[in-house]
Specification:
The structure holds two protein chains of two kinds. Chain A is an all-alpha fold. Chain A has two domains: 2-88, no CATH class; 89-309, MetI-like (MetI-like fold). Helix content of chain A is 78%, strand content 2%. Chain A contains 13 helices and two strands. Chain A has helices at residues 2-26, 33-37, 43-52, 59-71, 87-122, 127-141, 144-158, 174-208, 211-218, 223-260, 266-275, 279-307, 309-314; strands spanning 77-79, 84-86. In chain A, a hairpin with a 4-residue loop joins strand 1 and strand 2. Chain B is α/β, with parallel strands linked by helices. Chain B has a domain at 254-345. Chain B contains 13 helices and twelve strands. In chain B, the strands form two sheets. In chain B, strands 6-7-8-3-9-10-12-11 form an eight-stranded mixed beta sheet. A four-stranded antiparallel beta sheet of chain B has the order 2-1-4-5. In chain B, helix 5 crosses helix 7 (165-177) and helix 7 (165-177) runs parallel beside helix 8. The chains are: A mainly alpha, B alpha/beta. The interface between A and B is medium-sized, with 23 and 33 residues. The structure holds adenosine-5'-triphosphate (ATP), iron/sulfur cluster and magnesium ion. Magnesium ion binds next to helix 2 of chain B.
């Protein structure tokens, strides 16, 4: 319990730090912020916008007002010549898409990388291991957007097997939903699979040299059990660390992949906020992504304590 | 009846000319280079030699625990009359746990750090003896009690890092004993432990061995450890056996200069346990390019020209059952003459630091 409290405090600190920093940066943009947000508006409307966002106050005060609204679920508005739309509405509809994209990619990555890592470590040095390593190295060096474009073009357009863009929610049927997610998820996962497999492989090879593996073998238990029950867990700690460090890249990847496959996710909000110079909306979107990032890392931290009992006592 | 008679007269395990080489970038490391012995049920063989002479490699080689890659094994290993020297993993797995088990050198690294002690004991029971989980749990509890672990039911749920070194070694012994092996390897079971705990662990092994009528191979670099415990002793140097004898014979009339050096290096009780090996001057030979003659010659106070050219064979001389490989054995006129000659020539005796 105390452990969770400490994590919570850390989450809040990180999020405050990130959002304050981005708020500050956005305020460095030259010119009157209201002109930036709504260049089309009349003088009165501009004044209203200024009031609404407390842009007449000092930056730290503005920031604090923004925080206050944010925790109440008010994420500010997107201003267009004809209307102002609450950002919260966009987030509500777009957030699940990005979450799905990220979770599916992590899932696919682990489902492929763990068996591949275990196998290549077990068969280290064999022809098959070297073959797999070469392929993975190739996959690792292609950026995810290139894979995305290739898949969208060949599988989506040329072969027409799967849609090359668009999104169908889970509610419209599992297969209908899956069809729209397969290519984006694969695009995001490939480089990650390659990286994670190599990390796990090298840790696994080191673990397999350990005394306790020889000891486990000498008990007469099956080779499979030695690999999966004895060697995998202690070898997966670096993998976990790398996964945590990689969440940022993964989120960055989703922004691009969402654009390629025309998925209505957080990336879309982000890009349109940038294009429309909606820095209040941008600020809120960045904050939500930061929270997502931190939460995933907290989950990874929790997994650590599950995987390694020695950590439980330390932290 | 005749069957059991025949079975009991044949040794449990018999080695002939066992070799184990490692292929390395530097060349072939001859870690074990032609070792033979046999051991009967209920008996203890002590294997003694200084660090790096191939004791652990020999034990692992007998059990078939070494990796296949870059390891070249030769010779014959017969377990209950069955050749297992080149057995594959599946065949070996039937032996592991049930027939042969090993207590490893370092209890700090030989237990899985992220698995509960209980599961590490029960898994071999469940797997090898096909018993139920509850039964295995119950057996594990009894095992921990029998190896002298207090509060066994609490220990079952703990992780190795929560136990002291001595406790871990007891757990390891419990794991090794779990499936009732006929042959137990104890590879320097006490070197990593406090002096006070060492004797307790050795006594525990002794008691369990007698109770279960196991054969035991007790590996150590300390002649003092095997003195009161082993039936036979094999002294190893640079991958080879240099002297082999029943324990009493060995101590009464040791013949090999290396054995003599080992004996002189047994620490006094008040000495720290790792000072002992430094007592023998010089270093063991390179196992990639061992000396052509006797491998001990560069460090031997008895060495003569002949030793540098011809390797002495391991054969029995005056007493049957007592074998040694030396041209100028300790306690013989030839030996005394050789030693005197060297001392006269000013070649300082390297034994016991040259005093
Ligand atoms: N995998 C390996 N590859 C190459 N050489 C090895 C390998 N394993 C062991 N050796 C070498 O074989 C020799 C014997 O090692 P071994 O571990 O059997 O020594 P030991 O008698 O058990 O010593 P200690 O008392 O330190 O445990 C050593 O010189 C070691 O360097
Ligand atoms: S006397 Fe010669 S043969 Fe005997 S141990 Fe010394 S060097 Fe080897
Ligand atoms: Mg050893």
């Amino acid at each position: 319990m105390a452990f969770l409290m400490r994590r919570l405090v850390r989450v809040i600190t990180v999020v405050l730090f990130v959002t304050f920093f981005s708020y500050f940066l956005l305020n460095l943009l030259p010119g009157d912020p209201v002109d930036t947000i709504a260049p089309f508006a009349t003088k009165e409307i501009k004044e209203a916008i200024r009031k609404e966002n407390h842009l007449d106050r000092a930056v730290p005060v503005q920031y604090w007002f923004w925080v206050e609204k944010f925790v109440q679920g008010d994420l500010g508005y997107n201003y267009t010549p004809s209307s102002k739309n609450p950002v919260a509405d966009d987030v509500k509809s777009h957030f699940p898409v990005s979450v799905q994209l990220v979770l599916y990619s992590i899932l696919l990555t682990m489902l492929c990388a763990i068996p591949l890592g275990v196998f290549t470590a077990y068969a280290a040095g064999s022809r098959l291991d070297r073959g797999i390593n070469t392929v993975l190295f190739g996959a690792f060096s292609i950026p995810d957007f290139a894979i995305g474009l290739l898949l969208a073009y060949f599988v989506g357009v040329k072969l027409g097997w799967l849609p090359n863009g668009g999104y169908k929610p889970f509610g419209s049927g599992l297969w209908t939903h899956a069809r729209t997610m397969i290519l984006p998820v694969i695009s995001l996962a490939i480089a990650q699979i390659a990286g994670f497999t190599r990390v796990l492989r090298s840790d696994m090879i080191a673990t397999l040299q350990e005394d306790f593996i020889t000891m486990a073998k000498s008990k007469g238990i099956s080779g499979k059990r030695v690999l999966w029950r004895h060697a995998l867990r202690p070898s997966s700690l670096t993998l976990l660390t790398v996964a945590g460090l990689n969440v940022g890249a993964l989120i960055g990847g989703t922004v691009v992949i969402e654009a390629i496959f025309n998925l209505p996710g957080m990336g879309l909000i982000l890009t349109s906020a940038i294009r429309g110079r909606q820095f209040i909306a941008l600020q809120s979107t960045v904050a939500i992504i930061a929270i997502g990032y931190v939460l995933i890392n907290v989950m990874i931290d929790l997994l650590y304590t599950v995987l390694d009992p020695r950590v439980r006592n330390v932290s | 009846m005749t069957d059991t008679m025949a079975a009991s007269s044949e040794p449990l395990i018999a080695l002939r000319d066992v070799t184990t080489y490692f292929k390395t970038p530097r060349g072939l490391v001859r870690a074990v280079d032609g070792v033979s012995f046999s051991l009967e049920r209920g008996k203890t063989l002590g294997i003694v030699g200084e660090s790096g002479c191939g004791k652990s490699v020999l034990s692992k080689s007998i059990m078939g625990l070494l990796p296949k890659r870059n390891v070249v094994r030769g010779g014959s290993i017969k377990f209950e009359g069955r050749e297992v020297g080149q057995a594959g993993a599946n065949e070996l797995r039937e032996l592991w746990g049930n027939q042969m088990a090993m207590v490893f050198q370092d209890p700090m690294t030989a237990l899985n750090p992220v698995m509960r002690v209980g599961n590490q004991i029960t898994e071999s029971l469940i797997h090898n003896l096909d018993v139920s989980k509850d039964f295995a749990q119950e057996t594990a509890l009894q095992l921990l009690t029998s190896v002298g672990i207090p509060e066994p039911s609490r220990r079952l749920r703990q992780y190795p890092f929560e136990l002291s070194g001595g406790m871990r070694q007891r757990v390891m012994i419990a794991i090794a004993l779990a499936c009732g092996p006929k042959l137990l390897f104890a590879d320097e079971p006490t070197t990593a432990l406090d002096v006070t705990v060492q004797a307790q662990i050795l006594d525990l092994l002794d008691a369990q061995q007698a109770e279960r009528f196991m054969a035991m191979i007790l590996v150590t670099h300390d002649l003092g450890v095997v003195a009161g415990r082993a039936d036979d002793i094999m002294v190893m140097y640079a991958g080879q056996a240099v002297e082999k004898a029943p324990t009493r014979t060995l101590f009464a009339q040791m013949r090999h200069p290396y054995t003599e050096a080992l004996l002189k290096s047994i620490p006094k009780l008040d000495q720290a346990s790792h000072t002992r090996l430094d007592a023998i001057g010089g270093r063991p030979p390179d196992l990639v390019h061992p000396p052509t003659g006797c491998r001990f010659a560069p460090r031997c106070p008895y060495a003569q020209d002949r030793c540098l050219q011809e390797a002495p064979p391991l054969v029995s001389h005056d007493t049957p059952g007592h074998e040694f490989a030396c041209w100028y054995p300790v306690g013989t006129p030839e030996g005394a003459e050789a030693l005197a000659k060297n001392q006269a020539a000013g070649i300082a005796a390297t034994v016991s630091g040259g005093n």
